[in-house]
Amino acid sequence: MKTYKKNNTDSIGSLSLSDSILSGATITSQPAGYTFPHHLHSTIEIYRIISGECLMDVQSETLHCTKGDFIMILPNIVHSFYLNKKSDCTFKHVHFDPNMFSNIILENEGVYPITLMHAVLFSSHFYYRFSADDVIDSTLDNDGTWTSLLDGGKVEGGHWQTEIHDFMSLPLMVRPGTVLPLGAHDDRPDYDYLDGVELHVYQLADGESETVEIPDTKGNVAATFTVTMKDGQAQVETDSTKPYTVVVHQ
Asked: What is the predicted pLDDT for the residue at 209?
């Protein structure tokens, strides 16, 4: 167990990660005009911008990052970090060993095993960026009962949750008021998605309606389902002629 510190030595929490995996995790504030010149390292570097804005040169690209942005820079990539003359910046900053991803095998049927690190390198090339999203941020704050998609466990919304997950679990939570269609086949990605589809209704209030569209394999709308809760029962209107199932999660 290692406790990581802010620059002013105030504790920001404990992480159950060994020194061999995590080489640093801080919340850092830098003043306007700050510059960290071009450099590279063998670790994966993560930034989450808490306030202000910053600039990063990653290889030949310049990224302008603002509050809420997430940036992951891959190992051995030349990059720099700097601020303009007008804005300070506060950010979460993490370095960790890429072998953590290399040890997660996604597929082992070919000549060489495919790891999570291969997937990251294939999809990101130099870096991965997830921009701030006000819709996501506001959705996370919704009150009501959220339901775990994997095990059906429930937690109350309106605040951030702290959980511990291993490589065999994921924090997949379904917000209240959702109608989530789940396909009947898990052996292939391309099939008739309407065939035996299950409509899972999560905490839809009485008198409220929610509409979902089911696509075909080309991305066109194949059918529309509108679910309305009335006296605790789910009523469905659809233009589909295929059989379907409705599962209500209270």
From this structure: 95
